[in-house]
Amino acid sequence: MQLPAHDFLDRLGLPYRRMSFPPATAKGAANVARALGFRERQMIKTLIFETDRGERLLVMVGGDQNVVSGLLKKAAGSRNIRLASADARFSVRETRIAIVAEDDWLALLTWLESLFLEAEIKVFDSEEEALSWLKEGRNERGNP
Q1: pLDDT tens, 52-61?
Q2: CB 57 within 8 A of CB 72
Q3: Helix, strand, coil % over all residues of the chain, rounded to 5
Q4: Who contacts 30 (Cβ-Cβ below 8 Å, separation ≥6)?
Q5: In terms of Cα–Cα distance, which of 91, 92, 110, 90 is closest to 100?
Q6: Which of 4, 51, 69, 87 is the most exposed place for a label (fewest CB within 10 A)?
Q7: Residue 101: is it exposed, middle or buried by C-beta count within 10 angstroms (0-12/13-18/19+)?
Q8: pTM of the full predicted structure?
Q9: What distance in Å separates the CA atoms of residue 56 and residue 53, rounded to the nearest whole number?
Q10: Cα(58)–Cα(97) distance, integer angstroms
């Protein structure tokens, strides 16, 4: 399957290697990592959540990490959040994306993601700074 990320890398002439895993591979970052010959820590899980207001949240965490629902609810400003259905899509429009990262690897991945998205993306050292910046963006768009 040719994805937009492949098109982008091809246009830039950047080398990359496509990898796939058997369809019978059990779900989960650890199983996929093993099937591809990586450690779970080297993988990134991309999850889409939905709020009761119909907003979709794209959450990326290390393969060996879990999403803390209380923190996600606080960041979204909603107490009713659920994992989106498998066919859910995420579109970025007038969006701010805050990344809380303690290592340079995630900051580099964030920069790479910004090449594919038309969104304002910033990396923060603390959750408090990230939440403040996200709320600032909501207020600018007239969302509480």
Answers
A1: 888 877 787 8
A2: yes
A3: 35, 20, 45
A4: 40, 63, 64
A5: 110
A6: 87
A7: middle
A8: 0.57
A9: 9
A10: 9
The C-alpha R_g of the chain, in whole angstroms, comes to 16
Domains, the chain, with CATH or none: 92-144 (3.40.970)
* pLDDT confidence of residue 36: 93
The half-sphere exposure of 122 on its side-chain side, counting CA atoms within 13 A, is 14
Can you list the residues of the chain whose pLDDT is less than 70?
3-5, 8, 88-119, 138-144
Q: Which helix (DSSP H) or strand (DSSP E) does residue 98 occupy?
A: strand 96-100
Residue with tokens 């591809």: 36
Please, which residues have CB within 8 angstroms of residue 87's CB and are 6 or more apart in sequence?
none
Q: Quote the CA–CA distance of 35 and 20 in Å, as a whole number.
A: 9
Tokens of 137: 């963006």
Helix (H) or strand (E) holding 106: helix 104-114
Return the structure tokens found at 73: 């609810």
**Residue owning tokens 């019978």:** 24
Give the model's pLDDT for residue 37: 93
